[in-house]
Design goal:
The protein is α/β, with parallel strands linked by helices and 219 residues long. Helix content is 27%, strand content 26%. Bound molecules: S-adenosyl-L-homocysteine. The site of S-adenosyl-L-homocysteine (SAH) has 24 residues, from strand 2, helix 4 and strand 4.
Length: 219
C-alpha cells in the first residue's frame, strides 16, 4: 500500500517558487522555512489564485500589492531576526510579509492605514493561529511610540527619506529595512543599522514599492 501523500500541482509550484527565491539570493534556511510554512494563496485575491506561487507581485485591492516573494525573502533575510526580537512592520497589506516575520521573531507589531486590508489580514492571522502578531489601524510613518524600542523595523511602503521618528524607535544595534524614493524613479532598498552615535546605511539595490501615504483612510 502506498502511504505517501501524493505530490499535488500546488506542492510542485510551491517548491519551484522556494527554489526561485533561493536562487534570487535568499540563502538563510530559517527564512526559506518560514516562507515555506506560510501559504501565499491565502493572502492573494480569488482572481489571482493560480498565480499565487509565481515569483511576482500581485494586486490585493485598494491599489496595493503583495510583494514579489524574492523581495519578501531578501528583506526578511536582511533583518537578521531571532526569536527574542520585538519587530515592527509598517504596511500590513495582505499580511503575507507579517506572517513570515512572525515565524522568526518573538512579537510582531504591524500597522496599516486601510481598514478593509487590516481586517482581512487580521482574519488570516487568526486562521493561521499567529498569536504573536498585533495589528493596528494607524499611520505607520509615526511608528508606535508606546511599544518602542524595536529590535527590527521593516517598511513595505516607500518613504521619500529615512523617517527620523522611526530611527528614534529603533534599539541601539537594531536594523531597519525600507524602500526609499519615488516608485517611478530610482527607488532603493536601504538597510540601516543604528549605532551608539548615529546610523550606518547600506544600499541593497533597486526596488518598486507603493508610496508610504500620510494619515488613515476612513472606514
Ligand atoms: N507587506 C504587505 C505589502 C504591502 S503594500 C504584504 O505583505 O502584503 C504597502 C502597504 O502599506 C499598503 O497596504 C498600504 O496601504 C500601506 N501603507 C502605506 N502608507 C502607510 C502608512 N503611512 N501607515 C501604514 N500603512 C501604510
Amino acid at each position: 500500500m502506498n502511504t505517501e501523500t501524493p505530490i499535488s500541482d500546488s506542492d510542485t509550484a510551491k517548491a519551484r517558487l522556494i527554489l526561485e527565491v533561493r536562487q534570487g539570493g535568499v540563502t538563510d534556511d530559517t527564512v526559506l522555512r518560514a516562507m515555506e510554512s506560510i501559504p501565499r494563496p491565502l493572502f492573494v485575491p480569488q482572481a489571482f489564485q493560480e498565480r499565487s506561487f509565481e515569483n511576482v507581485a500581485l494586486p490585493i485591492g485598494r491599489h496595493q500589492t503583495v510583494s514579489q516573494p524574492v523581495v519578501v525573502g531578501l528583506m526578511t533575510q536582511a533583518l537578521d531576526l531571532n526569536d527574542r526580537m520585538k519587530v515592527l512592520e509598517i504596511g500590513t497589506g495582505s499580511g503575507y510579509q507579517a506572517a513570515i516575520l512572525s515565524k522568526l521573531c518573538r512579537r510582531l507589531y504591524t500597522m496599516e492605514r486601510h481598514p478593509p486590508l487590516l481586517e482581512e489580514a487580521e482574519a488570516r492571522f487568526r486562521e493561521l493561529r499567529l498569536t504573536n502578531v498585533t495589528a493596528v489601524l494607524a499611520d505607520g510613518s509615526m511608528g508606535w511610540k508606546e511599544q518602542a524600542p524595536f529590535d527590527r523595523i521593516m517598511l513595505t511602503a516607500a518613504a521619500l527619506d529615512i523617517p527620523a521618528q522611526l530611527v528614534d524607535q529603533l534599539a541601539i544595534g537594531g536594523i531597519m529595512v525600507l524602500p526609499v524614493g519615488l516608485d517611478d524613479s530610482d527607488q532603493r532598498l536601504v538597510k540601516l543599522t543604528k549605532t551608539e552615535d548615529g546610523a550606518e546605511t547600506e544600499d541593497l539595490g533597486g526596488v518598486r514599492f507603493v508610496p508610504l501615504l500620510p494619515g488613515v483612510e476612513p472606514e
